[in-house]
Amino acid sequence: MYKAPVEDIFFTLKHVTGLDRVLGAGRFGDLSDDLAHAILSEAGRFATEEVAPLAEIGDKQGARLVDGKVKTPDGWAGLYARWAEGGWNSLAAPEEFGGQALPHQLLVATLEMWNSGAMGFAIGPTLTIGAIEAIATHASDALKQKYLPKMVSGEWMGSMNLTEPHSGSDLGVLKTRAERRDDGTYRIFGQKIFITYGEHDFTDNIVHLVLARLPDAPAGSRGISLFLVPKFLVNDDGSLGARNDAYCHSLEHKMGIHASPTCTMIYGDGKFGAEKGAVGWLIGEENKGLACMFTMMNNARLAVGMQGVAICEAATQKAILYARERTQGRGPGWKGDGMSPIIEHPDVQRMLLTMKAITQGARSIAYACAHAIDMVEVTSGADRGFWQERANLLTPLAKSIPTDAGVEVSSLGVQVHGGMGYIEETGAARLYRDARIAPIYEGTNGIQAIDLIGRKLPLSGGAHVRGFIGELKAVVEDVRKSNRPGFGHTADKLAIALADLDEATEWLLAAQGEGRIAEALSGATPFQRQFGLTLTGVYLAKAGLADAGDGKDEARVALARFAAENLISETTALKDRVVNGAASLAAARAALG
Amino acid sequence: MYKAPVEDIFFTLKHVTGLDRVLGAGRFGDLSDDLAHAILSEAGRFATEEVAPLAEIGDKQGARLVDGKVKTPDGWAGLYARWAEGGWNSLAAPEEFGGQALPHQLLVATLEMWNSGAMGFAIGPTLTIGAIEAIATHASDALKQKYLPKMVSGEWMGSMNLTEPHSGSDLGVLKTRAERRDDGTYRIFGQKIFITYGEHDFTDNIVHLVLARLPDAPAGSRGISLFLVPKFLVNDDGSLGARNDAYCHSLEHKMGIHASPTCTMIYGDGKFGAEKGAVGWLIGEENKGLACMFTMMNNARLAVGMQGVAICEAATQKAILYARERTQGRGPGWKGDGMSPIIEHPDVQRMLLTMKAITQGARSIAYACAHAIDMVEVTSGADRGFWQERANLLTPLAKSIPTDAGVEVSSLGVQVHGGMGYIEETGAARLYRDARIAPIYEGTNGIQAIDLIGRKLPLSGGAHVRGFIGELKAVVEDVRKSNRPGFGHTADKLAIALADLDEATEWLLAAQGEGRIAEALSGATPFQRQFGLTLTGVYLAKAGLADAGDGKDEARVALARFAAENLISETTALKDRVVNGAASLAAARAALG
């Protein structure tokens, strides 16, 4: 059973990604280290004792559509109520609307824990947090006053309605229509698919944010507007009024996160209400809907990245526990009678250490992104610009690296369990099934890679990424200077990886500068993985340098060495794909028919 | 929908792995190229038109235990009947018992196609083929005459009963008991788990092969005997007699291959029959049961490898079809109006080409193993010894590389489908779920790696593997001499991979020779992957050299180049893990707690 790794999380925030710098900026008042730790401990308790025990029934029962209503699994509505009551929904929300305005680093740390407990649960509140952010940033004061207090308290949830059958990665072609009405409201007509928690029984009302197109809108992505469409209209006194003309038509049958209802939503077909059309209110300006979405895209992508971290952690814990208990054969150093625990086999140790290193690497990358987002909040001027670029650079990495890691680590977790891993009762299979959506939604990892090379490397003309690589090199120098024998060849191996990163980065900047776009695009995914592996190696080394005196210093040094000497040497092959792979890829296009 | 790639399969057998050499040996009479092609074509038709269409219902309904009887999905029993009627069960079985005694290469080619159609279907017959082989090789004439004709015709199926709850990879500790009776029969008592098709409604009788321990047996793996235990006793006239005291207690709830009943089998608890104990007949000698199993282990492991190839092929076909039809965004070279098919995006091309190259590499490795098994049959003396070593060397690779590939390729297949890949209706998710068992059963891939380095590299004192690497180098020289521009840097890249393979092989041989066993074991899995990647590169190049004149020559050259320039450069990092990775792995053991 999952146990929230509060100390590992707190260590990472404090010693790897820089929580202290954020707290020290004064913006968060009397939020001390101790208080931050206490908040994480309480979240860990809730995730361990309340969320995780409901994961299995959530997977088995799944969300069901009964007589037009979505029924969540037994006990899940109560879980949500206790979770909201605990104030977890309001952690990073504005104080003005009842939120606690805590650092983003604490938010994502709690997201990790909810998702480790049950990813199908955590995804709902995650989207509500995104909806709150969009409304708080772009909506009118009237809308904010009417909706935000109840969304922040958790009394109502939100949903994000973007995708249509022919319009997923490319939102510019969506067809859902919006019509203006004289009273300043709009009517929405269309179908949305893959709408997570579009309908459920957690809350009385659901606040849908819907992308749609006005009749006179420009074609493409510049003609899309964002609307607030509540399930029930809200009276001026805050009570619920008439049912809006919006409903869940069907649920998808998915490979995992069964408890999370994935809805096909129908807007404005006349099923509800006297007049056909779902009543909506504009958020932001007409035709600027995508821009409204983009402002919160960083946070949403990071939130999905946390799902990857969460799956990694849960799978690693489960595998280590199993490998300690399951006996089979005799490991080479085993002195006991009879069979040894399988953790005594070097091949099993390799799997477990790989899982542990990848997990901690993914966590560090994601938290570093959250740290950058916090730094944007606590700085101004050029500093703020710097941190905004850092957040922008890290976002595709924080989404893609942990979510790919979730697939890889949960697969290793199944393997460690042997035949029992393929049987649903151990839960290893559930993590493997749950993990597989995260590299897809909120922008596929291929799209993240294209964003990374096309928009993020060129920030400040390439100076930002070069500076970042310089910071990583400084860590490697610190490792070298530490002369700590436990680091083995860590510094040498990391130096190679960073030289590889230099070379691939410069090649991509040059290729794009010279208009060789197809060539650059060919290397996007290998580059992203290369960057992620390198960050994993460096962040683990940084953790090894911390000397926290908590009895885990040697173990962290050893894990950093394992990553450096066993995992990251792949960067050279990946760099080779980036700088030399495009020609053969183009030539082989014909082999695809 | 899956369409059997008969021409690709036949090309591989003929030009990559050497079907001609086997046919030319005279052992298979008038079996010509044309006849072999005709057999494969008919199998392809059956797999495409009969098996594949039942995959989805098989997954949805699964096998169910109803009133003690296992009900397979709607239509599956009829499918099995038509399949057996077509003679597919008897393809490689001895002629003496009604088999067709065709080359193993044709058998595995058909196994690929059945598994691509529906892995949950193919696994049942695969195990029957294994049971036939065990009985034909080791049982008494009386048992052979009584059981084999009906098993070869498909009238009865077989099952393999090895695993117990505490005894999986380590069979030496199994507890199922066998007691001698005066009439020469035995009584079996115990519980077996994970018994594939241990009970079903395909056939009237099921012939269980069961590993058990006699009361006076030596401890460990030298005290295990093999027994034939039919579901119904068989009268002397061949008709069915009393129900034996063996039954399916429950079915496992698995992540995939839902249609395949995975049974917990109870032997001898008195549920059936007057006297407690399941009646069994000894196969081979007492206490030599594991040796009987080992003789067919090569074939069984190869058969599981074929499941990996099969999933790769099915997933690749599905992804390419989807990528041609689904439009989204505009690829960099797209000249058409509106959105392009996603196959126009380089990142998608990279995924599809990776899938295609890995698939063809996995197929080549598996077929090369089948070819070696055939060569054992058609040669004698030193030649036969050589081919037996080749089959032994290739077996762990033929099991592990394609099954790991199945996981990797089906995961890419899900990714190409985007959100639709996570929805069960496309079938991409089913392939991903089905694929995950193959790296586990019939010896985990970690155990294959240990077998590879511990038992197979040392064959003939290392001379066999060195000779094999020499053969691979000769292919690379042929590529170099061909001066074909389409090969690009293929020869150079392959030469590096082969030098890496030399180095890692010699390091492992030396380490084991010097008793540094834990160090060698630490590198087993990276070495296995390294070997597989190298073979993939070389076999694709060999295919590129074939000049078959079928209009696909250039595409094969281009695919070989893509593999050489984009996939196999990882071998250098893997070699580094083998020769330099053990120390950091051992040092990090403490990080696992």
UniProtKB/TrEMBL annotation, chains A, B:
Membrane-spanning parts: none
Domain Acyl-CoA oxidase/dehydrogenase middle span(s) in chain numbering: 160-266
Keyword tags: FAD, Flavoprotein, Oxidoreductase
Cofactor(s), by name: FAD
An example Gene Ontology molecular-function term: flavin adenine dinucleotide binding
Domain Acyl-CoA dehydrogenase/oxidase N-terminal: 37-155
Pfam families per the UniProt record, alphabetical: Acyl-CoA_dh_1, Acyl-CoA_dh_C, Acyl-CoA_dh_M, Acyl-CoA_dh_N
Catalytic activity: 3-(methylsulfanyl)propanoyl-CoA + oxidized [electron-transfer flavoprotein] + H(+) = 3-(methylsulfanyl)acryloyl-CoA + reduced [electron-transfer flavoprotein]
Chain's role: Involved in the assimilation of dimethylsulphoniopropionate (DMSP), an important compound in the fixation of carbon in marine phytoplankton, by mediating the conversion of 3-(methylthio)propanoyl-CoA (MMPA-CoA) to 3-(methylthio)acryloyl-CoA (MTA-CoA).
Family (UniProt): Belongs to the acyl-CoA dehydrogenase family.
This protein's name: 3-methylmercaptopropionyl-CoA dehydrogenase
